[in-house]
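Hi, here's the filled form for the chain we discussed.

Project: internal
Contact: R.S.
Residues: 526
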Amino acid sequence: MAKAIMIQGTGSGAGKSAIVAGLCRLFRDMGIKVAPFKSQNMALNSFITKEGGEIGRAQAFQAEAAGLEPCNDMNPVLLKATGEAGCQVILNGKVHATMKAHEYYGIKDKVWQEITAAYDRLSKEYDLIVIEGAGSPAEINLQEEEVVNMRVARYADAPVILVGDIDRGGVFAQFYGTVELLKNPHLEKGDIGGFCDADYIKAFIVNKFRGDINILRPGLRMIEEKTGKPVIGTLYYQHHMGLDEEDGLSIEKFARFNQSAHKDLKIVVLRLKYISNFTDFAPFLYEPDIEIRYSMWEEDIRSADLIIIPGSKNTVSDLMFLRENGIEDSVKAAVSKGASLIGVCGGYQMIGRKIFDPHNVESTLREVQGIGLLDTVTTFDRIKTTCQVEAYKTGIRDQGSGVREQPLKGYEIHMGNTTGEVGLFSVRRYASHAERITHHSELIPDGSEQGNVWGTYIHGIFDNDEFRTEVINSLRQRKGLPLRDVEVSYQAIREEAINRWADTLKNSVDICFILKHVGMEYCLKK
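And the returned structure, exactly as it came back:
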């Protein structure tokens, strides 16, 4: 069975996901067979594995850092907020049900079985598992119900490194308070009498520090004296790390990323209430001629060269919000004056003529009028499409010609199907049967186009450098600007970012301490 180290935080946004990713890359480069694991994730940013399962985007990125293909076992429980209906519960990559909190707690035994089974499978394949916690382990009202922090540490017998965000203030109180609140003995089968959850915490990492380290040092010494646990690293605040973000809390950072200078083109992504997979548009951040904003402001929409309506976990609710607040009218006005509009997934559904929901999958409304910019109709059903895809741009009136030698790579995550004048892309879906990854031979029509408006179900489509450049050139041509060649390799940028972050951890955190506590100090001699 694998060794394990667990990264917990004093609260959400402390930097756990990034630190796990960096450690995965660092340990991979040391020759350790390492994999990430997060038992339960709550996020609208998700990824589809080759098995056709849905996991948190952060775990997919951590797998990439470890040099692995993401798999369902890396995130056996994913919760996706759907509004008043509660959360969509995804177990081992597949939708289980939409449940409210008390209903979810009612199946906690089943959930725990899924978690432990997934962990055991990973543990048989790898030498080291880097586990990520969620929120804070010291939510004392949830300690009997939680399946993501100390219960996982106990099961995996994993030493815990506790991360605190000093940029928010109060980091020493957070460290001290977390340790104190976890000092009640928590005995389970196999536990040593008197051993408590606080004993699993072996050290602290201070994250997002700004300023003079000499001023911080007295506090570091005092917290070590008060808790008996060392601070094994202080990480300076990182601007524009280039790492995947987990949820909408990070959109502000995205919005500020590339607004420092005048750019030729402006892209506005509507910042929906239930926005999902907002990292679909991260590749545009690195294009030298693009300014990208996540916004609902009329001024931004009016001045945009391209408006994108992104994915949504509640398409109907977000569409009604756009309509009731006049944003739909602003988008239509901008399009009528020449702005381009792209809808991705939920956004693609919104810009069609109608949305039907006969089974009330998303709301109590059986029929909703769409924005009406594409001649398409979407009908929701109870089955969720989750698959990786290869796509060829064919054009609606040129279906099957396959003009592209290299297929576009991406994935689909959606409820329902869209019909009408579709066929902008021809898509081949991957499927999983009896642990064997195969793909359907037939090409399925996807997407629709009408004038300066188009939409698709394909997430990750803008990761494809040549296609992204085609989209940019279409905007440049519309403005009378010269066309340009591919200037950015998004995959290369991601690799550079991961390596740079891993080097930061190597130089700022006592990696020897971690390896010694998991019994792998022999790796230091390699």
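Let me know if anything looks off before we file it.
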